[in-house]
Amino acid sequence: MTEQLKPKLRLAAGGDITEVTLSLGPTALGITQISEIADKPQAQLAGPLPEELQNYTIFVAGVPADSPQSEGATALLKFLRSPKVVAVIRAKGMKDFGSDGGSE
Fold first, then answer.
1. What are the helix (H) ranges across 45-98?
2. Cβ of 58: how many Cβ atoms within 10 Å?
3. Which is the most buried residue in 21, 56, 80, 92, by most CB within 10 A?
4. What does the alpha-carbon distance between residue 12 and residue 93 come to, in Å, rounded to a whole number?
5. pLDDT for 47-92, tens place per residue?
6. What phi and psi, each to the nearest 5 degrees, are found at residue 20?
7. pLDDT tens digits, one per residue of 17-29
């Protein structure tokens, strides 16, 4: 099956994957981060891949102990963990792993 599909594959990189896939027509299938598809009204999310095939991009933030701007940075991190922001993160198709690294 790999050999049959190889001539039909189109590889794209970066944030243009959804647009490249859409330009190929209604029967095209693209695989990218859910957040790249979530805001594209012309794209239909078929669903996440099975857990064993997932590859997560995890963002981590911290404040250096001797930072002169630690109050502002701490406030930003608190804001990013607020229920309102977490709701937006989830609505955009991203997963909230929480501050302890655990799943949702």
1. 70-80, 83-91
2. 7
3. 21
4. 20
5. 778 888 888 888 888 888 888 888 998 999 999 999 999 998 888 8
6. -60, -45
7. 777 777 777 777 7
Rounded alpha-carbon distances, angstroms, from residue 99 to 8, 78, 83, 86, 87: 42, 11, 13, 12, 15
7 three-state secondary structure = helix
Which residue ranges make up each domain of the chain?
1-47, 56-104
Q: Is pLDDT above 80 for 98?
A: no
Task: Please provide residue 25's backbone torsions phi and psi, each rounded to the nearest 5 degrees.
Answer: 115, 175
Q: Are 35 and 94 in contact (CB under 8 A)?
A: yes
Q: How far apart are CA 36 and CA 82, in angstroms?
A: 23
Longest dimension (CA), the chain: 59
